[in-house]
Specification:
This protein is mainly α. Helix content is 48%, strand content 5%. A two-stranded antiparallel ribbon has the order 1-2.
Length: 130
């Protein structure tokens, strides 16, 4: 199993797919990494030589990945919260930050909620109007 940027890459995957397991390296960045390293993207990760792995590691170092990237993202969110920006307030409340509606959707950010409705007449009669 090959380890690049602190991530174990799956042996059976193609190089162009396996590199996306690194946080911060998506399909667009994979193309740049493969072009810089001059490696065939269709090759399996288990078939890479030590020299090719070294080239890939050198190419990946150009990008901010894994811990450094996560830390930068968290700092950006914290900055938005501290200055009181609208997006920061939405982050703090756990609501969508990019303008999505929340009345009927938004379960991913808001979570499952208990339905709140009107009180039925028979319940009111039992409790004595409380």
């Amino acid at each position: 199993m090959i380890r690049i940027a602190g991530v174990n890459l799956p042996d059976e995957k193609r190089v162009d797919i396996g590199l996306t397991y690194i946080f911060g390296i998506g399909r667009a960045n994979v193309k740049k990494v493969i072009a810089d390293a001059k490696i065939d993207g269709a090759k399996r990760i288990k078939d890479l030589t030590e020299e090719e792995v070294g080239k890939i590691q050198k190419a990946v170092e150009q990008f901010k990945v894994e811990g450094d990237l996560i830390q930068e993202i968290n700092q950006n969110i914290r900055r938005l919260e501290e200055i009181g920006a609208y997006r920061g307030i939405r982050h703090r409340r756990g609501l969508p930050t990019r303008g999505q509606r929340t009345r009927s959707n938004g379960r991913t950010r808001r979570g499952k909620r208990k339905t709140v409705g009107t009180v039925r007449k028979d319940v009111v009669a039992k409790t004595g109007g409380k």
